[in-house]
Amino acid sequence: MSKTNPGNYFEDFKVGQVLDHATPRTITEGDVSLYTALYGGRFALQSADSFAMECGLDAAPVDDLLVFHVVFGKTVPDVSLNAVANLGYADVQFKAPVFPGDTVKTSSTVIGLKENSNGKTGVVYVRSTGTNQMGATVLDYVRWVMVRKKDEKAPAPEEVVPNLPDRVDPSFISLPEGLDFSGFDATLAGSPHYFEDYDVGEKIDHVDGMTIEEAEHMMATRLYQNTAKVHFNQHQMQHDRFGRRLIYGGHIISLARALSFNGLGNAQLIGAINGGSHTAPTFAGHTIYAWSEVLEKAELASNQTAGALRIRTIATKDMPCDSFPDKQEDGKRDPAVVLDLDYWVILPKKTMAV
Amino acid sequence: MSKTNPGNYFEDFKVGQVLDHATPRTITEGDVSLYTALYGGRFALQSADSFAMECGLDAAPVDDLLVFHVVFGKTVPDVSLNAVANLGYADVQFKAPVFPGDTVKTSSTVIGLKENSNGKTGVVYVRSTGTNQMGATVLDYVRWVMVRKKDEKAPAPEEVVPNLPDRVDPSFISLPEGLDFSGFDATLAGSPHYFEDYDVGEKIDHVDGMTIEEAEHMMATRLYQNTAKVHFNQHQMQHDRFGRRLIYGGHIISLARALSFNGLGNAQLIGAINGGSHTAPTFAGHTIYAWSEVLEKAELASNQTAGALRIRTIATKDMPCDSFPDKQEDGKRDPAVVLDLDYWVILPKKTMAV
Amino acid sequence: MSKTNPGNYFEDFKVGQVLDHATPRTITEGDVSLYTALYGGRFALQSADSFAMECGLDAAPVDDLLVFHVVFGKTVPDVSLNAVANLGYADVQFKAPVFPGDTVKTSSTVIGLKENSNGKTGVVYVRSTGTNQMGATVLDYVRWVMVRKKDEKAPAPEEVVPNLPDRVDPSFISLPEGLDFSGFDATLAGSPHYFEDYDVGEKIDHVDGMTIEEAEHMMATRLYQNTAKVHFNQHQMQHDRFGRRLIYGGHIISLARALSFNGLGNAQLIGAINGGSHTAPTFAGHTIYAWSEVLEKAELASNQTAGALRIRTIATKDMPCDSFPDKQEDGKRDPAVVLDLDYWVILPKKTMAV
Q1: pLDDT score of C331
Q2: C28 to chain B: which residues are within 8 Å by CB?
Q3: Chain C residues touching A233 at Cβ < 8 A
Q4: Tens-digit pLDDT profile for residues B201-210
Q5: Largest CA distance in chain B
Q6: For A251, A262, B37, B314, which has the most beta carbons within 10 A of its beta carbon?
Q7: For position C1, what pLDDT does the model report?
Q8: CB-CB under 8 Å, B216 with C232
Q9: Which residues, at least 6 apart from A169, have a Cβ–Cβ distance to it below 8 Å?
Q10: How far apart are CA A317 and CA B349, in angstroms?
Q11: One MF term in GO for this entry (chains A, B, C) (predicted)?
């Protein structure tokens, strides 16, 4: 029996199957520092224990996207080692906050299967759940990937396609227990703009650009213990159609989020991710820019001091975003666009219900 | 109203104005490890809790320059976003030591303004103060920068130029409470040379060289949450006169300090920085070397076990320092010189007053 | 007197001499995170406090190789600053586990000297011991290096060549106190293969490859406070015969160990290192692959829940290991091989003595 992990092929998945993923991971202050060094985030709640305590928390919580990357990374060896393409994700809900010292693990349930007509591949839908050492859910999301069949003659499974929401209903957004923005210090947070100051339809150019180096995206992706080999092996990738190591899509999401501070500086937490597309590959040497559009605003019944903005953030490579590059006249996306992310962010409200 | 930060222009500053900067930052063991990985410092006091405890402290303090970079980084969005040039700093005094877990924030007071005769720019002088979560000052310094006017027709302010000291008076040097070098273990510290062993006028070639990579200086500068875009955006900088990302000057200071271990290994703390010039830009690929000269020696009334050396450290790019490159015969600086830093370091004394 | 460290030359060493090395180092969660970011290790015991607690420990121990690199790095300024070549190491025994917060220092005893017939160099044998802040030994090993004489006329010392074991006797392997694999969760650990599942003679291709960047190996080597200048100074190394910075051999060991997870995922600890050769230099841009062979299996009298596998791991550059590259027909090593490491790893046993 081979000792190496062959990964799962399409025919290995069954609807209802539960996959308990390796490796549990204690997230520490060291990870938080590296995350800052890799992206340069400046959101106050994650940056300073004292600020988080003024907002009712025990300490600065770990950045939501760092939690996402760690939880996600664990699914790769079991779900997407033989994947052809990562097709999408939906219903990404952040639940219990993670603090340094918490240990996170992930399990996934197969919730859908659909063989492609070519008989060579199929789409696997999984709901993945990250839990902490107390068993509380920290993150829950659906992902679907196209996976190769090992044996093309293996019979097609019964087709099950889950019904996925277009967006996370804002009433489902879970804020950290005790979070209270009623004494929010906007000066210290670095932005004068509260929930009420944003309008649906408003577009924001985040102005700044960040160039990516090979060492950075590889350190990030290893930090998340994500083992997808396309990110790490230049000797193999030189023969690929791009001839380059591909950058983990999550690295671009984190860069775009950090860049969005300039314009969304009070977006202290990500409430949920509704969906996202990595519309073009990125490589070392690319400079990432971003802009955002406010899609929707929602009050939060569970917290009178905060509101949720539904944001669409577009990231580009080697193209400033002052012209808000997006779909072109012919309906095609501008080729500089590399990410189109739809998510809820949480901001303090100016007019608090007292 | 635009949601992005336009920064302040020269006419936005008023003498006496107080700027409370974002973002507070908890400095952790993770930051300390990254700092070691980026520069390779080996000063014992910052490296080992046990060594620091033998010297009377509760734990290893955070490197003075890491504190400086974090405090400094916060001033960039408010003070120097529209700067043409960083002209200098003076009277840099390190006060309460910072330990992992402390949260630092910065505020600045405008202490001087001087419009340039071209009417397009002016010099802004600020005194910036970093404080910890207990409100104690950890760092205090003056910086002056040349800032663009937004509206060239804006009237010139009354000229106020602060009177700045050439050097920090050594009687102002503040050592960590409890610091006691009477049992100093020079073997463990890695240098047999005490305060008494250095002579004014002595020159030391620090021998070693360190080559800089893009990923390193960008990770460092993001760790400090310093957002100056010239360091990060190759897509924009390719059109600049150098065609390259500029390296944050503080990165060179930290490299020079780490290199200075070879010759100044017992310089356990920086007491103060008297002034410094970044005399030429540095780019990834440059190898940094350094040499130092002892300018002055001072006893410390507040601590009988330590003495202060006033040091001038010169860093060069792509040029070893065995010939002590400096001003040339024609009075011009050797073009390989990139940094000229004047500061006080604290060393244990061999002959302790008991 | 020059203030810089000249290092020791061959004639400076005496058999029996004790060298107490600078600089003590507190190993923290920050170092652990960086180690993960640099190599991407996924061994469960080091990754999660909760997993380590299920295995009877108080917390996740620091990776054995991170401890090795820190302990080793300290010996460089005193032992190998004037070395021509690092010839080998043997009898590397890991003792007390290191946990974040522990402070490590190193001292070495000269145990052998042998001048070379050319009268210009000699071989120095040292036994180096790393201890923690309680004085417990964490690591003990023998290394021998070829060191230059400063004065070729200095008389040759009496020749003393220590008798070194071919391998560490497995009865000497010291496991962390309390370690108990009787409830080992192989699913969470990421591998179904226990001690009993491996056969002597079995070969495992670890499949994955990892490309090295300059920033990565330099950050790693500085993290270990290893000052050997060949790793850092491109300005000097451009004139060397390779024209490149050499990568610290320990960086390759750590990469090979991380890659070995794919096939040896339950090898939770390194019990001892029997010996190793860095058979060719590696440079940034090289992609490292690895394969392993099981040389020997041993029960551990001190722990019924674990067994020891003696493993030989071969790492290559720019060459996949599916053909197990090794010695060629003419007896020469395949030129792609860069590392040949012989060591004991500790795995849980499936059939526990209850």
Answers
A1: 82
A2: 29-30, 32-33, 100
A3: 208-211, 287
A4: 999 999 999 9
A5: 66
A6: B37
A7: 62
A8: no
A9: none
A10: 56
A11: lyase activity
Chain B nearest CA to C171, separation (Å): 33
Residue B319 in tokens: 């040029």
Distance from CA of C92 to the nearest CA of A (A): 27
- Rounded Cα distance between C195 and A332, Å, is 56
Give tens-digit pLDDT for B247-257. Answer: 999 999 999 99
Burial label, C222 (beta-carbon count in 10 A; 0-12, 13-18, 19+): buried
Give B83 to chain C, closest Cα distance, Å. Answer: 30
Out of C47, C206, C285, closest to residue A4 by CB: C206
Q: Which H or E run includes B217?
A: helix B214-223
- Predicted-complex ipTM score: 0.97
Q: Which of C51, C211, C285 sits opposite A24 (nearest CB)?
A: C51
Q: Closest CB to A24: pick one of C36, C47, C287.
A: C47
In angstroms, rounded to a whole number, what is the distance separating the alpha carbons of residues A212 and A204? 22
- Amino acid (1-letter code) at residue A317: K
Q: Which chains touch B (3 or more CB pairs under 8 A)?
A: A, C
Query: Which of A60, A263, A318 has its CB closest to that of B4?
Result: A263
- How close A49 gets to chain B, by Cα (Å)? 6
Contact status, residue A227 vs residue A304, Cβ threshold 8 Å: no
**Do residues B101 and B64 lie in contact, with contact meaning Cβ atoms separated by under 8 Å?**
no
List for chain C the helix, strand, coil content (%; round to 5): 25, 30, 45
- According to the model, what pLDDT value does residue C353 have? 46
Domains of chain C: 14-148 (3.10.129.10), 189-354 (3.10.129.10)
Q: Is A212 helix (H, G, I), strand (E, B) or coil?
A: coil
Nearest CA in chain C to A5: C262
Q: Note the maximum CA span of chain A.
A: 66
Q: Rounded mean pLDDT of C102-130?
A: 97
- Interchain CB distance below 8 Å, A44 and B34: no
On chain A, the residues whose CB falls within 8 A of the CB of B225 are 36, 40, 42, 47
Nearest residue to B260 via CA among B282, B292, B287: B292
Could you tell me the CA-to-CA distances from A348 to A199, A200, B83 in Å, in that order? 15, 17, 31
CA dist A32 and C213 (Å) reads: 23
